[in-house]
Write a structure and sequence with these properties.
mainly alpha, 9 helices, 82% helix, globular
Length: 193
């Protein structure tokens, strides 16, 4: 492939497709903390964008170096996403049912954010196969375009979540937990079947 409008369009559309899980998780985070600051929103969206850029490049490197190892790892991706999102969503759900969300809603911990970043972007590893014919510079450009698209989509998800989180007040963590568990199940089912 060469540098062209089609390359940029394909990369942007790939970014939209890959960002849907991160968008949903961002909405859940916004539901969980309707008073989230703009800085926290940028940190969350930036983390998702970073992971969405790193994973395709990691996949690209794997294709060009250790293809056999990567292809055997690929079958575990749905299981890892289900475990990570199930854990985070389950914790939010339990906290919401116990009524602890008012105390918990302050800040998303760095560990939970990293787990969300991995869980929502791990399927992007396989994008390394689709961009394997690109040179390293084009692969890097595609990954950066995916990251920018992801950032803006996640910011939109956070804003939507915050808006509805304020309206749902007491039950936002329950809804957010259900959404995260649902996303984990969707990744698992579509990856296994």
């Amino acid at each position: 492939m060469e540098w062209s409008f089609v390359f940029f369009l394909n990369s942007a559309l790939l970014g939209v497709g890959l960002a849907m899980d991160a968008f949903s998780v961002s909405m859940a985070n916004g539901l969980h903390d309707p008073r989230m600051s703009r800085g926290t929103m940028c940190r969350i969206a930036g983390t998702f964008a970073l992971f969405q850029a790193v994973m395709p490049m990691t996949g690209w490197v794997c294709v060009h170096t250790i293809v056999e190892l990567f292809s055997s790892f690929e079958k575990f991706i749905p299981w890892i996403a289900l475990a990570l999102l199930g854990y985070i969503g389950g914790k939010m759900l339990v906290d919401g049912i116990k009524g602890e969300e008012a105390k918990e809603a302050g800040e998303l911990s760095a560990g939970a954010l990293l787990m969300q970043g991995v869980a929502t972007s791990i399927d992007a590893l396989s994008v390394g196969f689709t961009i394997s014919e690109y040179g390293w510079l084009m692969a890097l450009a595609a990954s950066l375009i995916i990251a920018v698209v992801t950032f803006f989509i996640c910011m939109a998800g956070l804003r939507i979540g915050k808006k509805f989180g304020t309206k749902l007040s007491g039950k936002a963590s329950i809804l957010g937990g259900i959404i995260l568990i649902g996303i984990g199940l969707e990744i698992f089912i579509s990856g296994v079947f």
